[in-house]
Design brief:
Layout (H helix, E strand, L loop, with lengths): L10 E3 L2 E3 L4 H38 L1 E8 L4 H19 L3 E3 L2 E11 L6 H13 L5 E4 L3 H14 L2 E4 L6 H8 L1 H4 L2 E3 L5 H23 L5 E6 L5 H14 L3 E6 L9 H9 L4 E6 L3 H12 L4 E6 L5 H6 L8 E4 L10 H12 L7 H17 L4 H8 L4 E2 L4 E2 L22 E6 L2 E6 L26 H9 L2
Parallel strand pairs: 3-5, 3-6, 6-7, 7-8, 9-10, 9-11, 11-12, 12-13
Antiparallel strand pairs: 1-2, 4-5, 13-16, 14-15, 16-17
């Protein structure tokens, strides 16, 4: 029947009955609004899904590199800044390429507090690996703490390049328990065997100068070393070598690693008639001894291994009182590799000080990067295998590691043409390199001719020369 005015129709629309006039148009509008609403919701969901995927993709393209060290002390702070510079430079150069994927490096730093508390160091390493999820770590300082932290990486299988430990015990342990501790590598020449050899070479330079300039036929040597594990083999070795090489031992002094006053020890050394002080320290005492030595004008030449005096921060903080101190150091005003002086100048310009052994941390991150790229994967066993094949020219030298089957495994190779270190002497604010001096290294002819550009001749402290000449 034709529709007339006021006529109502029962309309079946999507299962719904209605007798509302003109309902067709209204329902069309309602459905259009619903469709628009659904599209909006769909768009929002898609947007957030895209953002989530992008976030996940970004997370997958980040590799965490860790730094662990005693951040309350200068050495830890310096290594931390060196780590920052290394990671920044890696990212500026495009990051790390693993297969066809580029990764940005994120640096995570933790304070080990290892100089004061070994338990804190262990907890810090565990936190870095389990909480911060870091699998590639650089740092570590005090041997006693490093040995404890080694157990953590053995459990967690995290790769660790150590920069500062003086004892050979950590790499000796890798040799004895390779499968468990193969994740540990050591990049610095801070092996007490190497330290002993290098500094003894320097001691012979000082001995010859004392004999020649002061006319003293048999110089007396005072052994002054912080009470720490890494110093033990050095003292033992010196007790044998010194008498064998035309010198006498004036005495042995072993103050605390955190001693703030050593005037009693230095006064006793002066009373002993020592002409030379063989000094070894990597703790806070390293800044105290040379400063008080200069203040008291102790009439004995000081040479050894003093971490605090490896760069010019100690020169500045002592007001120049460390003048004429000589110490083993990885860097000085010398051209070890083509990368040495550019790095030296860059660090100096950026932070205001020259590099100490913290400088090798910079090389460590680049060695890690190169190994990951060669491995083509983040699998830790594959990266270990790549690290074992390292042949990298860094600022500190040509870096390679000792291999399985040797006495020390994953120690840095110490030899002419590889990493060698230097001895510097502070002369009027400049770290003048005095060794290698081109002569044989304790009878090893392979070292003959090894002398870096900028090497200078050792000088006795003027007050010492005046004191001993007045005794004649």
């Amino acid at each position: 029947m034709p529709a007339g005015k006021g006529t109502r129709f029962w309309i079946l629309l999507k299962g719904r009955k209605t007798d509302i006039p003109n309902c067709g148009e209204k329902l069309k509008q309602e459905e259009a609004m619903k469709s628009k609403y659904k599209k909006t919701i769909y768009g929002i969901v898609v947007f957030f899904l895209i953002m989530a995927v992008a976030t996940m993709a970004h997370a997958q393209k980040t590799i965490k590199f860790g730094y662990i060290g005693p951040m309350k002390f200068i050495v830890g702070q310096e290594c931390s800044l060196t780590a920052e510079m290394a990671v920044e430079d890696i990212n500026k150069a495009g990051g790390i390429k693993v297969g066809n994927t580029k990764y940005k490096v994120e640096l995570v730093k933790v304070d080990s507090n290892e100089i004061l508390n070994i338990s804190d160091a262990v907890s810090a390493m565990e936190r870095l690996i389990t909480v911060d999820k870091v699998d590639f770590i650089v740092g570590g300082y005090r041997t006693e703490a490093v040995l404890a932290m080694q157990e953590v990486i053995g459990d967690k299988k995290a790769i660790w390049i150590n920069c500062y430990t003086g004892s050979p015990e950590p790499v000796a342990r890798v040799a004895k328990n390779y499968d468990r501790l193969k994740y540990f590598f050591k990049i610095a020449t801070l092996n007490s065997k190497y330290i002993g050899d290098v500094v003894f070479n320097g001691l012979l330079i000082v001995r010859d100068k004392v004999i020649k300039d002061l006319g003293i036929a048999k110089p007396r040597v005072a052994l002054l070393g912080e009470k720490a594990l890494w110093v033990e083999p050095v003292i033992k070795d010196m007790q044998k070598r010194i008498p064998e090489n035309g010198m006498e031992i004036a005495g042995i002094w072993r103050p605390s690693i955190t001693a703030q006053d050593v005037t009693a020890e230095l006064s006793a050394i002066k009373q002993s008639g020592a002409h030379i002080i063989r000094f070894d320290a990597c703790g806070p005492i390293g800044a105290v001894v040379p400063k008080q030595w200069g203040e008291l004008q102790i009439p004995a030449a000081m040479i050894g291994f003093d971490c605090a005096s490896m760069n010019d921060r100690n020169w500045a903080s002592s007001g120049g009182l460390i003048n004429y101190e000589a110490t083993l150091a990885p860097f000085g005003d010398a051209h070890i590799t083509p990368k040495t002086m550019p790095y030296y100048k860059k660090l100096k310009a950026r932070y205001g000080y020259s590099p100490s052994y913290c400088g090798v941390c910079y090389d460590a991150y680049n060695v890690m990067k190169a190994a990951i790229e060669r491995a083509g994967t983040l699998d830790k066993d594959a990266v270990v295998a790549a690290l074992e094949k390292t042949d990298y020219v860094g600022a500190s030298g040509r870096i390679a590691f000792t291999q399985k089957g040797q006495q020390w495994v994953h120690d840095v190779v110490f030899a002419p043409g590889y990493t060698t270190t230097t001895i510097i002497q502070w002369i009027n604010g400049k770290p003048m390199v005095i060794w290698p001096d081109g002569k044989a290294f304790l009878g090893d002819k392979k070292w003959v001719g090894l002398k870096y550009g900028g090497t200078s001749e050792y000088q006795l402290p003027p007050w010492m020369v005046k004191y001993w000449k007045s005794k004649k």
